């Protein structure tokens, strides 16, 4: 039976309530359906047949149970055959890779020199994301799960876009965590968690490869790193942008300051000195005179007049 015929039979099955007709249609499906996973999904014949599993007619329920069991076994066998096929192809591919690898990387003594095994003790590098699980690195160094999780997070952050050995990255990550732990009197508290969270976020910034590089090349040592401020850890481009904004804000602030002039024409009413600075500003309507703001340079007394 094809898909169209099966769906038509299911439609008739759902419309009838006569036991004889139901049994007849189920028998047609049992004899005509050659179950595959794709066919069962497209037609949903299994769902339709399974509705009669609890039917009052024992002959119908018995047939339904038999059909469902046989279809399940057929689909499972289909899956097993596919798995064996994939496994076989994978084995053949691995065998070819082994042969190619052996030919490209001859064993010591075959003329390639001792350097051919120099990297055998290093962990495998993976293109794309790296983390302890992918690199096969054990980060459960302490009994405290929070400390282990911190080391794992630091490792993942340090390994972004790096091809350093996993052992070296783990060493740096462990040293950073250890320094933070010691700075909190060997306690895992909120300050410890907040510091590690801040360091991890700065290291994970993909726009800040310089920070990861300086740590992994030992240009910055962990004891110095944990004392750095967020501004000091920021990418060079961001540092320049912050400096530019700071200068602009300083310029704007200076530009907003009123220019003062010093004169001896005014006398301070408090200390009677005549060294007074002043500036003028329009504080009322345009047809009113300017307001003069005075400051005594001797005692700091301030006053104004129009």
Question: What features would you describe in this structure?
Answer:
- The protein contains 13 helices and four strands.
- The chain is an alpha+beta fold and 306 residues long.
- It folds into three domains: 3-81, Conserved domain common to transcription factors TFIIS, elongin A, CRSP70 (Transcription Elongation Factor S-II, Chain A), CATH 1.20.930.10; 132-238, no CATH class; 261-305, Single Sheet (N-terminal domain of TfIIb), CATH 2.20.25.10.
- A hairpin with a 5-residue loop joins strand 3 and strand 4 (302-305).
- Helix 1 (3-15) runs antiparallel to helix 2 (19-32), helix 2 packs parallel to helix 5 (58-104) and helix 7 runs parallel beside helix 9 (190-204).
Secondary-structure blueprint of this entry?
Blueprint: H1 3-15, H2 19-32, H3 37-43, H4 45-50, H5 58-104, H6 132-135, H7 145-158, H8 166-183, H9 190-204, H10 209-216, H11 222-225, H12 230-233, H13 236-256, E1 261-263, E2 276-281, E3 291-296, E4 302-305
Antiparallel strand pairs: 1-2, 2-3, 3-4
């Amino acid at each position: 039976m094809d898909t169209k015929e099966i769906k038509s039979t299911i439609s008739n099955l759902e419309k009838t309530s006569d036991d004889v007709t139901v049994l007849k249609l189920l028998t047609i499906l049992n004899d005509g359906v050659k179950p595959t996973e794709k066919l069962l999904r497209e037609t949903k014949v299994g769902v339709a047949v399974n509705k009669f599993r609890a039917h009052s007619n024992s002959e119908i329920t018995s047939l339904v149970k038999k059909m469902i069991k046989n279809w399940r076994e057929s689909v499972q066998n289909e899956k097993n055959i596919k798995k064996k096929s994939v496994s076989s192809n994978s084995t053949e591919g691995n065998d070819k890779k082994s042969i190619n690898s052996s030919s490209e990387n001859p064993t010591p003594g075959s003329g390639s020199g001792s350097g051919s095994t120099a990297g055998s003790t290093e962990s495998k590098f993976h293109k794309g994301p790296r983390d302890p699980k992918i690199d096969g690195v054990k980060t459960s160094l302490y009994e405290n799960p929070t400390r282990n999780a911190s080391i794992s997070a630091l490792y993942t952050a340090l390994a972004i876009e790096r091809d350093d050995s996993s052992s070296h990255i783990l060493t740096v990550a462990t040293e950073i965590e250890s320094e933070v732990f010691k700075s909190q009197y060997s306690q895992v508290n909120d300050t410890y968690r907040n510091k590690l969270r801040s360091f991890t976020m700065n290291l994970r910034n993909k726009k800040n490869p310089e920070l990861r590089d300086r740590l992994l090349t030992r240009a910055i040592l962990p004891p110095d790193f944990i004392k750095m401020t967020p501004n000091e850890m920021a990418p060079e481009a961001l540092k320049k942008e912050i400096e530019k904004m700071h200068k602009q804000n300083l310029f704007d602030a200076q530009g907003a300051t009123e220019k003062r002039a010093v004169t001896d024409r005014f006398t301070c009413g408090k200390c009677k000195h005549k060294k007074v600075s002043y500036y003028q500003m329009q504080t009322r309507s345009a047809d009113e005179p300017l307001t003069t703001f005075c400051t005594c340079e001797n005692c700091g007394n301030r006053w104004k007049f129009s």
